[in-house]
Structures are given as structure tokens and as C-alpha cells.
Design goal:
By secondary structure, this protein is of the alpha/beta class. It has helices at residues 18-30, 43-52, 69-78, 94-103, 117-154, 175-180, 184-187, 199-210, 260-289, 308-314, 324-329, 339-346, 387-432, 438-473; strands spanning 7-14, 33-40, 57-60, 85-89, 107-110, 158-163, 168-171, 219-226, 232-243, 249-258, 294-298, 303-306, 350-355, 361-370, 376-385.
Length: 474
């Protein structure tokens, strides 16, 4: 048997004979090794060699003048080494050799049969490597298990490991203590029923997962559990099967999470939702009690919601999709100067007077609804029918205008009466006084003519007023 030519090996030789040491080295070289070696023949030299260098192999003679193979083996064991220790001796009994093996030597070889050395070295170095790998794997496993246990015990949810009979075999602390009030030794080997609030929950989990003997993806269930002090609490249980390397069922695992606070939050949320729905219904009832049309309009000018006043005024159907300009002008185009459009643009309340084809007039007001970043997302449109109000305003204006005409007519009558009285007076003077000289008569006639012209001017102004009246009434 041989090894690769480039195999290097460091060998510590515990040998008092330099020639025997060289024979061992030559044998190793003949087997394909490239040994580097050091020979020692005292406990002190061996101690120093073991401390100063890492060795692959120790080959020791059994009998030395000041040292023995048993002493070397003892020193080797004190160092806790796990490398091949092979005894090579010229004269050793079988019983002694077996004793050496029991003490920890890996093999013994007679000096007259060194042909066994290389195969023994190959085997023992291979076995030492295997043992080293196993130790490494065991250390890694121990580290992994330690990490697993740390993780296992650090989880806040309670983890219960049970066997196929639902007896508890493990659980994590302090979660078990915090949630249930138990120490681990208080529940070990007991059935998990000790943790359930009632038999129904225990049976439900058994039916869903624990009693199954085949592959299962597990179940998440809400179950009531009981603490050591008798207090019950709701929890979310994630129950699943445990299998061995052959797929056989070996038990179950349950992760228990206390959901008391979550249930309280859910109940509070449901109560809030019920209250919100009640308030929403009251608010909608309030909006529907408003006789004026009220519309909620999107950016696309679509009517998202309308109160009963709007439905009645514009004959809106619940299943119909309409835009606001459909109801005002029966058109498919947006209205010019629309207060809704202006409100979306300005972010402020906008108003407009809008007449419709049915001879009604509306005072339309648009109120913006904004989101958290002050963007207008919708607009509320309130429409007030001001048709009668405008008619009343027109009538009031007409009455006011007629009153003004009455005052004007009174003033005109006064203006006409003055020159007319003067004409009558002066004409009477002419009739009564026949002896009046011509100069006096000429003066009176001049006054009569002047007042007549004054009356003519007043009548001309009345014609202008009549024209104005025609304009007003038309």
C-alpha cells in the first residue's frame, strides 16, 4: 500500500536508537510519504516537542534507557491529542501489547516486521481525520443546538412539543411561565389537556391535527386556554405534525400566541364600525331631509352621491351614471363658468346663478373637500331653487319703478299747474278790463305765451318719460 508522492507528514519519534529511527523514516518514505521528523528520548524532550509543534504521527519505542512507551503514551494522553500513536518495539509480549492498546495506543509493530508500518499509518491517519471531522461536526451540532435552544427560549409565543400520545415533552421558558404560570417540570409528561380551557378545545385540535397519522400542513385555530391560576384567555394556536427522518409521525408541535389584546382591539374596532355606520346613517338621513339638491361630485364631474332632494329635482336614478353637466344643461359638455370646476381649481367655495331649460333659476354653491395634503378630491354642490325669489325681486323692482313714476307724475302736475294758473289769470284780466291800454295788454299776452311755451316743454318731457315706461314694461 502506498500514498501519493507529495504526501507530507510530521513525525515525532520517541526512540533512543538513531539507526532504528532512520529505518522507520526510510520505511515511511518507501510507502510514499515525505516525512519531516524529530527524535526524542526523554520526557523533557518529548514535552518540549509536543508544545512547540503540531504533529501528524507519534512512533514510540517501548523500552528506552530513561523512558518507556507507557510513559510516552501517558504524556501523549495528558496533552489530549488525537493523532496516531504507534508503538514499534524489538521485543514485546502480546499481553503487554494488548495492555498498550487498552491504554490508548493505536497499534504496535515489531521492528522485524516494519512492512506493517505504512498500512498502519495510513489507516490511523485516516481514522484520526474521521474522528476530527466527527468532533468538528459534533461541535457544530452542539453550537447549532445551543443556538436553537437560545432561539427556542427567546420566543415570546409558547411552543409546546408533545409526543404521539399528546404528552408534553418540552416547552420554552420564560414564555410558558409568562403566559400560563407553569414551570416546565410541572407539565412535563402530562397531557396537553391541562392547558386547554375546556374539553371541546382539546378535542377540536385533536381532530384537526394531533390525532392524524399522516402528513399535514398544520392548522391555525383560535382556542381558549387556561392558566395555572384558572384564568382563561383566547389564543391563536398553530398546530402541526412532527416527523422523523423516514416520514413517520413522532409527535406534534403547537405555537400558542395570546390574542387577548388583539381580541379587545377587534371588539373595539367592531364597536367603532357599528357606531360609525349608525352615525353615517343618521348623517345620510339628515342630508336627505334637506329639501335642496345636494350632490357629491368627483374630479371627473361624475355624481358620486345625491340626496333625495337632488334625486327628486333632477329625476336621478340610483343605477344611472351621470355627470353634473347632464342635469344642468342636458349636455355632454362641461358648463362654462361652472362653480364645481372653479372650486376644483381654486380650492375655495365658488357660487353661480344657473338657469335651466325648465324656466327655473338655481343658486349653485360648490364646496371643496380636501385630502391630507390639501388636494381637492371631491366637491359638494348645493343647489337652491331661487326661481320664485327672482320673480319676487322683479315684482319689487317694478313696484319701486311705478312708485317713482307716481312721484314723477305728481311733480309734472305741479309743474303744469303753475303756468296754467298764470295763463288763466292773465286771460281773465284781458276779459275783465276792456279799457286796458295796448302796452299793458301786450305785456299780459307775452306772459300767456311764455307760460304756454313752458307747458309745451313739460309735455315734451312727458313724451320722453312715456318712452322710458315702454322700455321698462317691455
Amino acid at each position: 500500500m502506498s500514498v501519493q508522492d507529495n504526501t507530507k507528514i510530521s513525525v515525532l519519534l520517541v526512540e533512543d536508537s538513531e539507526d532504528d529511527a532512520l529505518l522507520i523514516v526510510m520505511e515511511l518514505r518507501g510507502g510514499g510519504y515525505k516525512p519531516s521528523f524529530e527524535r526524542v528520548e526523554s520526557p523533557e524532550d518529548m514535552q518540549s516537542a509536543l508544545e512547540e509543534k503540531q504533529w501528524d504521527l507519534i512512533v514510540s519505542d517501548f523500552s528506552l534507557p530513561s523512558f518507556s512507551g507507557l510513559d510516552a503514551l501517558k504524556l501523549y494522553k495528558e496533552k489530549g491529542l488525537d493523532i496516531p500513536f504507534i508503538v514499534v518495539s524489538g521485543a514485546i509480549g502480546e499481553e503487554t501489547a494488548i495492555g498498550l492498546m487498552h491504554e490508548g495506543a493505536h497499534d504496535y509493530i515489531m521492528k522485524d516486521n516494519l512492512a506493517r508500518l505504512v498500512p498502519a499509518v495510513l489507516r490511523e491517519i485516516r481514522d484520526a481525520g474521521i474522528r476530527a471531522e466527527r468532533r468538528k461536526a459534533a461541535k457544530a451540532l452542539e453550537k447549532s443546538e445551543h443556538q436553537y435552544r437560545n432561539l427556542f427560549f427567546s420566543i415570546n409565543d409558547v411552543i409546546i412539543v408533545v409526543d404521539s400520545n399528546r404528552n408534553i415533552v418540552d416547552a420554552n421558558q420564560p414564555a410558558l411561565r409568562n403566559q400560563f404560570g407553569y414551570e416546565l417540570d410541572e407539565i412535563l409528561s402530562r397531557q396537553t389537556s391541562v392547558l386547554y380551557a375546556n374539553a371541546d378545545g382539546f378535542e377540536r385540535v385533536g381532530t384537526a391535527v394531533s390525532n392524524l397519522q399522516q402528513l399535514s400542513s398544520g392548522k391555525i385555530m383560535e382556542i381558549d386556554f387556561r392558566k395555572k391560576n384558572g384564568e382563561t384567555f383566547p389564543a391563536e394556536l398553530n398546530a402541526m405534525k412532527l416527523f422523523d427522518e423516514h416520514g413517520g409521525v413522532v409527535g406534534n408541535l403547537g405555537i400558542i400566541r395570546d390574542i387577548t389584546e388583539r381580541k379587545k382591539s377587534e371588539d373595539s374596532l367592531m364597536a367603532s364600525e357599528r357606531e360609525y355606520r349608525a352615525l353615517s346613517q343618521q348623517f345620510i338621513t339628515l342630508l336627505n331631509s334637506i329639501p335642496d339638491p345636494l350632490l357629491l361630485i368627483s374630479r371627473d364631474k361624475e355624481i358620486l352621491w345625491a340626496n333625495s332632494g337632488a334625486a327628486k329635482a333632477f329625476d336621478l336614478k340610483p343605477e344611472g351614471k351621470m355627470n353634473c353637466y347632464n342635469i344642468w344643461h342636458k349636455s355632454d359638455k362641461e358648463c362654462r363658468g361652472c362653480p364645481v370646476i372653479r372650486s376644483f381649481e381654486s380650492g375655495q367655495e365658488e357660487t353661480s346663478i344657473i338657469p335651466t331649460g325648465d324656466e327655473r333659476v338655481w343658486d349653485v354653491r360648490a364646496f371643496p373637500i380636501k385630502n391630507d395634503i390639501d388636494e381637492v378630491v371631491n366637491v359638494i354642490e348645493l343647489a337652491i331653487d331661487v326661481t320664485e325669489r327672482q320673480k319676487l325681486q322683479q315684482k319689487a323692482m317694478l313696484v319701486s319703478q311705478l312708485a317713482s313714476l307716481g312721484e314723477l307724475a305728481a311733480g309734472v302736475a305741479h309743474e303744469i299747474n303753475n303756468p296754467n294758473a298764470a295763463i288763466i289769470l292773465n286771460t281773465q284780466l284781458l276779459v275783465d278790463d276792456q279799457d286796458m291800454v295796448s302796452e299793458e295788454r301786450a305785456d299780459i299776452l307775452g306772459r300767456i305765451i311764455g307760460n304756454s311755451e313752458r307747458i309745451d316743454r313739460i309735455v315734451s318731457k312727458l313724451d320722453d318719460i312715456n318712452h322710458l315706461i315702454d322700455i321698462i314694461f317691455n
